[in-house]
Design a protein that fits this description.
Chain A has 257 residues and is mostly helical. Chain A contains nine helices and no strands. In chain A, helix 6 packs antiparallel against helix 7 (149-213) and helix 7 (149-213) packs antiparallel against helix 8 (219-242). Chain A is elongated, with a radius of gyration of 39 Å. In chain B, 24% of the residues are buried. The model of chain B has no long low-confidence stretch (mean pLDDT 90). The chains are: A mainly alpha (257), B alpha+beta (105). Chains A and B meet through helix 2 and helix 4 of A and helix 2 and helix 3 of B.
Chain lengths: 257, 105
Amino acid sequence: MNKEDFLKQLQERIRILQPSEQQDILEEYAQHIQMRMEGGLSEDEAIRDFGSLDDLAAEILEAYHISPDWQSKIKEPIAPVKEAAIQCAGWLERFWQKCRAAWGKFRKWLSGQWQNLQLRLKKEDAPEQEVPEQPKLEKPPKQPRPHTFWGWIKDMNRRLWGMIGALFAWAIRVAKILCRWAWNAALLCAAVPVVCAVGFFLVCTGTLVVLLVQGYPALGLLLGSIGIVVCGCGVLVFACTLIWKKPNNNKEVGDHA
Amino acid sequence: MNAQFKKGVLELIVLESVRKRDMYGYELVAEVSKVVDVNEGTIYPLLKRLTNEHYFETYLRESSEGPPRKYYHLTAAGVLYRDALEAEWLQFSQQVNEFLQEHGA
């Protein structure tokens, strides 16, 4: 331990004294160490001769009739709470930044997957869409269709399948929209009670913090309620990722195509 | 030497050291250390306590080397207290000596 550390730690232990007294004592010890060092001792040796810092501080405090464990007897609930809050804030900020980075990555990945899916769907759709066009092109040569019954059947067959395909595509589209609405509505219904619970427990947390500062033994309850709030928020954020958004990135797909 | 012995006698030695001439902290510590082997750190709190109880007065005096030094001066109350302590000590040590001698004989 060097002189600075020694004096700092000693001051920490006697900070209950008047600043002028603290100064007086620290100067005395600083001078003593200085003189011991001039006498040929190392800084460390000179300080080690004082023995235990706690015992030393206890003896100094005894001269003022102050109990050596005064620190434990003074209630300073604000200081630790403040310290913890500052630490928590720093931690939360870091956590938030990490979350944002992770969320950005996840979104990128998700949108990439979605575009892939769209491209694949488009590719699959494309031949189907071309099918109804083909008969149109073939219409002029279809003039001789009444001549051959077989040709007419073939034509009808093609048309029928084209219609069925279109209908099927429409049905899928409508079903998709319906599913989306139903899904989002269900999510909303599920989210409402969670939001209510989070709100309620936020109020609880505030109340418990006030009770704790006043000295009630509410730490367990407070931690519990903070846990519930955090869980609720987590669930809500997760639910947000589950919202089925309207796929309006056709343009992007077109650009990619 | 027994720590409890030291603690009781230390006050007397410190008061006696300053009686002849005023001393500053380090000088006093060195003087006391000649008589009893004691943790140097513990003498300062003792000086502080005796000062708080008005047995010592302190004043600063410039020194040729380093910062000004705080000198301790024994007050009238300090002299009386020292005399009382000395009397107590003599009586006590005499009693203990007599007891030991009686038993030894």
